[in-house]
Structure formats: C-alpha cells, structure tokens
Design brief:
heterodimer, A: 110 residues, mainly beta, 4-stranded antiparallel sheet, B: 11 strands, globular
C-alpha cells in the first residue's frame, strides 16, 4: 500500500528566507506525486505535480519540487518566502485515490 | 470555469440526527471523491465514484455513512445518527478520470460539528 511521510509537523521561517518541506513516499510503481496547500478555512489548492520525466517540477506561487527516486523523496522548495505562504502543506501520492502525509504547518515571521 | 462546490459550508447538528452534505463537481469530471479531515486522523479517503458507481467504499468508517451520485454529477454524503467523532471537515474533489495521473480538484469543504 502506498504511504507518505512528512517528517516536519511545523516549520517557522523568516520572510524572504528559503523554505524546504520534506516528503517521503512508499509506493511500488512509478508514483504520481502532488503537493497541495491549505490556507486556514480553505480547501486544498494544487501547487504542483510529478508524473514522469524531468525530476524538477515547477508549480504556482514560485514553488518547485524535486523527485528523487533513490531517496523516495519529493521535497518542496521556495527560494524566498512571502508572508502569504503561511499555510499547511500536504504531500500526496495518487493511485486513483490520494494518500496524504500528515501535513506541515508553515509559519512566516516578519 | 466553476470549481468544485460544496454545501453547506458549515453544519452544526445534535448527536443522533442525520445530515446530508452535497458536492457539485467540475463539469465533465467523471470521478468524484470524498475525504474527511479531522485533527486526530488527518486527511482520509472515504469513497469515490466513477460515473454513478462507487468502486471503492473502503474508507467509509461505519454503516452510518453512505453516499450516492446521480446523473454522473452531484453527490450526496449522508451520515445517519451522527456521533461526536463525526465532527470534521468533509472535502469533495473531482477529476477528469479515476487514474493516478489525473489531478483532483478540491472544494472548500463542509465543516460538520456534532454537539
């Protein structure tokens, strides 16, 4: 069965600093991987997705993620964080239904 | 175009009452999913529909939970005899097809509170 682990429950970062959120997956075949973001009281918004090909994928809001098969990882990065990036971030693997990690809450300090 | 919509946005009910939650998927999306988000359990899959059929109901927590989809469009999730542990945010998503490479688009959710 597929599963996703997000090791960091909460990350605090200064505005303008870089951000990296970790995600490890367990899946038998080529994984379809997604990152979603959830702002307070909102639904889930797709940031980016990986299906195949280039291991570095670009998403919305300046986010990117790198797929590393050897490490079973799909880490999310942003070079310079804005206060509006404060939210909860979910990594997920999809084999027709999504299996989510526990999420990482990002706090941005001024 | 219009995204996934859900109603009501908030529902407060008393223990033992029945509730119905509604989902309107993106037009043309054949796959529709229900997930539950709660503090203790995170985001959990409940059920999904391909057209009007539900090939996977494995996530429904008890027989008090049921769902249907009509006309390949609107879906209703029904919880009978609600319990306090049913309090959660219920999220609906839809995608073009029911395969891993198709993106699921989420609605804003229904926050259910059982008193």
């Amino acid at each position: 069965a597929q599963s996703v682990t997000q090791p960091d429950i909460h990350i605090t970062v200064s505005e303008g600093a870089s951000l990296e959120l970790r995600c490890n997956y367990s899946y038998g075949a080529t994984p379809y991987l997604f990152w979603y973001v959830q702002s307070p009281g909102q639904g889930l918004q797709l940031l980016l997705k990986y299906f195949s090909g280039d291991t570095l994928v670009q998403g919305i809001k300046g986010f990117e993620a790198e797929f590393k098969r050897s490490q079973s990882s799909f880490n999310l990065r942003k070079p310079s964080v804005h206060w509006s990036d404060a939210a909860e971030y979910f990594c997920a693997v999809n084999d027709y239904k999504l299996s989510f990690g526990a999420g990482t809450t990002v706090t941005v300090r001024a | 175009g219009a995204g996934v919509s859900q109603s009501p946005s908030n529902k407060v009910t008393e223990k033992g009452k029945d509730v119905e939650l509604r989902c309107d998927p993106i037009s043309g999306h054949t796959a529709l999913y229900w997930y539950r988000q709660s503090l203790g359990q995170g985001l959990e899959f409940l059920i999904y529909f391909q057209g009007n059929s539900a090939p996977d109901k494995s996530g429904l927590p008890s027989d008090r939970f049921s769902a249907e989809r009509t006309g390949g469009s609107v879906s209703t999730l029904t919880i009978q005899r609600t319990q306090q542990e049913d309090s959660a945010v219920y999220l609906c998503a839809s995608s073009l097809r029911d395969a891993g490479l198709y993106t699921q688009y989420f609605g804003p959710g229904t926050r259910l509170t059982v008193l």
